[in-house]
C-alpha cells in the first residue's frame, strides 16, 4: 500500500466506531430506481450501510434475478448485480437484507416503464445555438432556497465571487422566452447536481451526490420540469458531466468502498495538465500517469476509471439522468484527463440506450491534431475509436481571436483562421465540434478584443457563420466583460436576475444604447442562422486571405452566404472578381444585418469589420 493510503487507513482506524455508528444500517441504494426495457438488461446497485456486507440479499420478482452479490474491502458496501429480463414488468419489488438474529432491512425498488415518446431526446447538432450559463449566477427565481442550513456552505454573499449568489433552476425557467427571442435553441447549464463542499461550491464541478439536484438550485422534479419547459418552447437541454473527479465530501469519498476507488499517491499530486503526454509516442510513463491520475484540486478526488465498479456507477448514473429527465446532450468536462478505453466504452453504452443523444468533450488543447486525437474515427492513429462525436473547438476559438487581434503574417493574423479550418481533414465530422469564444473558465469576448465593438461584432459574425455548433456564454449579448484572473469576474451575476437589481438587462428598457445594439445585432444573426440551413449544414468553401481580407461561403441548394472579414487596420475595397467560382453570376446580395441590398462588384469594408451577405441568385429564364 502507498504511504498515502496507509496514513488514510491509520486515520480511519481511529474513528471506525464513530464513523460506523453515524452510518445508518441502510444509508442509501443507487440507482434509486430503474426502468424496464433498457438495451442493457444488467444493472449494478451500490448499497451503502453500516456493515451491510454481513447481510444476505433476497429479491423475489418475475423477470428480475440477482446475478451476483459483490463484497469489497469496506464492509459498509455491497454491489448487487441484477439481470432485468425483457419480460420484466414495471412495478415495485422488495430487496431484503437479512442477518441471523437481527431485524431484516428492506428497500422497495421501483421499476418504471421507459418513456418512448417520439423525439423526446432530440440531440444537439449544427442546427443549434447553445447558450452556456452558470445557474448560481444567471437568475434567482426562488429566494426561499437561497440558504440551506443543512449544507456545509451556508452563506449567501453576492459581493464575493467565490460564494453562492442564489441563482437557481427556477430563475432559468423564468427567462426561457428571453433566450428563445435571442435565437438560442439549446441551453447548457454548468452542473446542477449537489456540490456540498464547505466553500466555492457554486460552480458545480465537485459533485457530492450524483443522483440529487443541489437543493439550492431546486429539486429533481423541478429539473425535470425545466427540461419539459424547454422542450415546450423548442429549446434543447445539455447536461454537464464530470467523469474525472468528485468533491471530497461525497459519501463514497468520506467512506470509500475500496482503496482503488480513487487514484492514490504517496503525497498529494496535482495533474501536470499536459494532454500531450497522453498522445506523445515518446512520452515517459511517469508524465502520462501524472497527467491522467493526478488530482485537479485537493477538494476534487480523482476517480479511478479502471475500477469496474466506478465505471458502472458513472455510466448508470448518466443513463439514469437521460431517461429520467429527457435531456438532449452531454458536455463532458476535462475529457483528456479520463481513461480513454473507459470513455470509449461509456460512449457506446450510453448511445446504445439513446442513439440520438449528442455528446461533446471539453478539450482545451493547442492544436487541431491534439483535438482530433480525442475524437471518434481514429484519424490520427490513436489505435482506438473513442466514439466521441465532437469537442469544444478551442483551437478555432484561438484562431478567431488571432484574426481579430493579431498582426498579419504567413500563418498569423487572419491567415491563422484560414490555416486552422484547412486542417478539418483531421476530423471525421468537423460540424460536430462546438465553436465558442469564451466560457466560465476564460476571459470574456469583449475584454479579449479590448472592448472594440467592431471586433466584437466580427467575432459573433464568424461564430455564427463558420462550421460547427456555435456556443454563447451568458451575458455576451449585453456586453458583459472582464478577465478570468485574478478575481473570477467572468462569473458575475446577470443584471436583473435578482429582485432589487438596479438594472434589468433581460429587458430592452433596462439596457443602455450600446447594450441594445449588441443584443439586436446578435439576435438578428442568430435568428437568421436558425432559419438558414446553409449556415447550419451547408458546405463551406474558404479562400486564402488576400491583403488581410478573409472570404468564405456557406451554401446549400437553397441559399448561398458570402462572409467577408477585413483583418487589416484600415478600410479596404474588395474586388470580387477573384471569387467568381462561388458568386457565379450574382450581382447583388442582401446584407443580413441592415437588410439592404448591395452590389457585389466592388465592396467597401471597414477595418476589422465583417459582412454577412446572402447572394441574390438570378432566376433562370423560362
UniProtKB/TrEMBL annotation:
Matching InterPro entries: Cyc-maltodext_N, Cyclo-malto-dextrinase_C, GH, GH13_cat_dom, Glyco_hydro_b, Ig-like_fold, Ig_E-set
Gene Ontology BP, a term: carbohydrate metabolic process
Key words, A-Z: Glycosidase, Hydrolase, Signal
Keyword check for Zinc-finger: no
Membrane-spanning ranges: none
Annotated ranges, domain Glycosyl hydrolase family 13 catalytic: 132-529
Leader sequence segment: 1-21
A molecular-function term among this protein's GO annotations: hydrolase activity, acting on glycosyl bonds
Protein name per Swiss-Prot or TrEMBL: Alpha-amylase
Origin species: Mucilaginibacter phyllosphaerae
